Amino acid sequence: MGRGQKDEKRKFIIKVATEIFAKKGYENTDVVDILKAANISKSTFYYYFKSKRDLYEIMIQEFFNEIMKVIWSTEYRTLKNREEIEKYIEKLVNTYADFAEKYSSMIKIILSEATIVNPEFGEVLDRNIEALLLTIVDFVTIYKEKGIIRKDLDPTLFSYLIAGFVKEVINHVVIKETFTIERDRVLKFISIIFDCIFTH
After folding, report:
1. pTM score
2. Alpha-carbon separation of residue 37 from 34, 40, 56, 92, 150 (angstroms)
3. Structural domain for 62, as ranges
């Protein structure tokens, strides 16, 4: 089996395991459950992972790596006017919606039990949230200085508002399953918020 095939096999096992962990939880999931769902042998499983916990931790760390790529994009720093900012916000909403849909099972695991299985994941989650807050503060500060965003807007409080909104949408979409991401609806809401902060 070539390197590419091995990588694909590993990704497949992680994908299958993620769905099982999301449905049954870490404690209620056995390696046998993963073997059956992935249709692999025990030796194949242990070729890629040392244990159930090893798989779980690798799975979550890879998720955090992916979310950091989304959060740390610096594309927002080069926008020139309100129109470009609005287009960027639309792109960002679609990016986060795609991410939430792609990783819904993983998000459910992170928010429901990962920090209990390994408290260090709580610290990683906090760092990710802090990164999001800092990105929003940076965004507001840059465009206040350019005169596009109102001078009296507090960057830190605004970052709490946006991060809280994102967190609650994810909570209701993924955990409670009481809300569906309708992108046009979300974009309209965010547009109303931003309409209040732009200079006119």
Report:
1. 0.79
2. 5, 8, 16, 34, 54
3. 53-197
